[in-house]
Structures are given as structure tokens and as C-alpha cells.
């Protein structure tokens, strides 16, 4: 039996590290306990009542909450576990700092360090990263983005890539639901993500506006919420397309899949990503995808989608126009995308890779 103690910032519906814990707990011979730094009770989280994962909330009110830190230290020193698995910048570094000597530690890096983290955040991570026996990145790009000083004390063989995965069965349960006919409706373009500078939805809005004359019945659905929502709504107004753009705000995962199932194209205009689960879920929903021409999305999409320069709305509009005007090409891209998502990125494959890593680490000790 391999007992894993996973330290997370929180457990939310979109927290991949939580989904990974659930998938690991479903593997014979793996037990998982989640320590959540900010959550106060399991009822506040996305955890299902029937979850096999044990849950320890620390109810931190701030990063440096002394009670939460003391509780975390106590958990790390009194719980019985074989592997400490750290995620997320500050909380992961804190757990590595407080873990007793001799603790076997696996760390997962989830984001592009050059684009996602500030220098102080990187320095906090770097201070304890050498305590990890294995450092896993969710893409080659994430691994390459680690600064030289984060790699100090780490050998190349300690670092590896395990791609994130998606719950294909959960998606398929929604895809099998009966859906209303969309006959007579115009094409629906969808994008999913936090409304932020990095996700770059303003470029998508400008690309969509330039399609207005060619596809006056087209609709754009932007799923998610975030600090730029009002700004993006204003951009849509200024472009004269606000009536044709739906901002859904936050919706649960099943509703996201329903929206994707009722869409014709998916767009990911991000300036950077660590991996992008939302994109792979759209691919699994058999949507042709148009994505930013950035290295990590080449890792994810391969030859299964179309690429556009993220700072050029005209480039996105061109790719969208081409796909909207060619039914056969759209079907071909949709099949390629679905095959790649379902073959390369199922969640079970990700969990199996981590389980193998845990066992290899323990066997080598």
C-alpha cells in the first residue's frame, strides 16, 4: 500500500490536483489524504460525499496564518504516509519546508513560471524545491520555464513530464444526454477560461467581430468569470457584437460540457498555458479547435487543430472563417481532436503514471 499525503491550496471544481487525487485513490494499492490549506470543511469543497479520499482542512485565513501553519506542521509530523505530494506555489513550498527529514517528496509544477509567477513567487518556490525527490511538470514547456535558480540542487533525472488528464467518462455521460435541435441556428463558437489577460479573450472578441459580415447569425459563448469580465463586455459593446456574445459566468463542469456539445468550434487564444485542461475537454467533445501558436499548445494539440498568432485577431478570424466555410475540414479536425484527447490525455493514464512514479521512488529508497 502506498499512502499519499497531497497538500493543496484548496479543492474547487476546476482544481486538477484534486481530480488527480480522486483518480489515484481509485487505483488498487493507493490511499490518498488531501490537506487543504484554505478550505474550512469538506462541505465547502467540490468533493463528492462518496469520495475515497480523506480530507484534512486547515482553514487558513491568510498565507501566513500561524494556526494553519502549526496545524500543517503537526499533520506532516504525525500522519502516517509514504509520499508527500506538493502542488501550488506557496503552499507547496511551505509543506516541503515543514516536512520531516527523510520524507519522500513529489512536487508537481502546473504553470509557466516565466509568464504566470512573479519573481517573489518563484523565489518562494525555489527555496524548498531541492527538497523534492521528484519534480514533475504538466508539460515540457512548464518544465523548461523553471528558472536556473529553481533547478539548483536538482539533477535532470529528478525532473520529468506527466501531462494532465481529463475524465472522459464524465464527459461522455453528458454527451449522451438528449439535446434540443439547433436547426436554423447560426454557428456557435465557444471559449472556456478565467477572464484574464493571460487567457486573451479580447483577441477572440475582435476576431469574432470581423466575422460579422460573413456570418451574421454566428454566436460567441465565453464561459468563465474573472477580473476582466466588465472590460471584455465593454470591448464587445464597442465592437458592436455584444448582442451576439454570451458571457456565462462560472458554471459547473457538466454545464460546460453541455455548452461544448452544442457548439461548432472551440477557440483557445491564451498568451501562455501550463497545459490547458479546458482545451482538451473541448477536443474530447469532438470540437475542431483554433488555438494560439505557442509551444505548449503544440504539445497539447499536435496536428489536430489550427494555430493563430495570439496577438493577431485577423489570424484567428482567418482560421475561423476557413473552418466555418468547409464542413468536411471541420469534421476532419473534430475527429482528429477527439482521437488525440481520448488517446493521449485520459485521466487514468495520468494517475497511472503518478502511481508508477511513487512506487519507483519508494523502491529506490
TrEMBL record:
Residue ranges occupied by any Glycosyl transferase family domain in the UniProt entry: 184-338
Keyword Disulfide bond: no
Pfam family, one: Glyco_transf_4
InterPro entries xref list: Glyco_trans_1, Glyco_trans_4-like_N, Glycosyltransferase_grp1
Keywords: Transferase
Keyword Transferase: yes
GO molecular function: glycosyltransferase activity
Glycosyltransferase subfamily 4-like N-terminal domain location: 16-170
Protein name: Group 1 glycosyl transferase
